[in-house]
Amino acid sequence: MEGGGEVCWPYLRSNDLGFPVLNLRIESPFGVSKEVLIRVDTGYDGFLLLSEERYRRMGFHLSELPRKYWSEGETVTGEVFKLRRALTVVRIPELHMRLEGYVDTFRGNTEDLVGLRLIEGLKLLFDGPAQRACIFL
Q1: Which of 50, 58, 86, 99 is most buried per CB count within 10 Å?
Q2: Which whole number is the average pLDDT over 109-125?
Q3: Contact between 59 and 29 (Cβ < 8 Å)
Q4: CA 134 to CA 21: how far, in whole Å?
Q5: Secondary structure class of 76 (helix, strand, coil)
Q6: Are 135 and 61 in contact (CB under 8 A)?
């Protein structure tokens, strides 16, 4: 952690591009906790999207909200699908932050993403030239 109530993480690289990530501790209602670096995707308007496998391993499938609270997603080709949803607590350990929200997944999903709903209350900097993402208190 750097001084002055901030923490930064270097961008991860894929296909010769850097992308911002946040280090989060995800907690399930059953006490399962996992700390992971997750890519920030401002194109995802939800809170947190987990791969179907991680969602199941952490037990979220056992505490899903009723279907009437599930959101809908849409692919770039216009295909609409349901996002299964469960409540979660997310922590940013380096800053002792606790955020309450929800986790989504869908059949066949292999990605973990931080969405706009999670970052909307954060003072967040994507520093492209330095290839790092920072949160400030």
Answers
A1: 50
A2: 96
A3: yes
A4: 9
A5: coil
A6: no
Residues 57 and 126 sit within 8 Å (Cβ to Cβ): no
N- to C-terminal Cα separation, the chain: 12
Q: Mapping DSSP to helix (H, G, I), strand (E, B) and coil, where does residue 16 land?
A: coil
- Residue 62 in 3-state DSSP? helix
* pTM of the predicted model as reported, rounded to 2 decimal places: 0.91
Tokens of 70: 């599930």
Local confidence band at 74 (pLDDT 50, 70, 90 cut-offs)? confident
Q: Which residues pair with 6 in a beta bridge?
A: 2, 136
The CA R_g of the chain, rounded to the nearest whole Å, is 15
What lies within 8 Å, CB to CB, of 89 at 6+ separation is: 26, 27, 98, 99, 100, 101
Distance, in Å, from the CA atom of 79 to the CA atom of 58, rounded to the nearest integer, reads 28
β-sheet bridge partners, residue 114: 40, 48
The whole-number pLDDT of residue 2 equals: 44
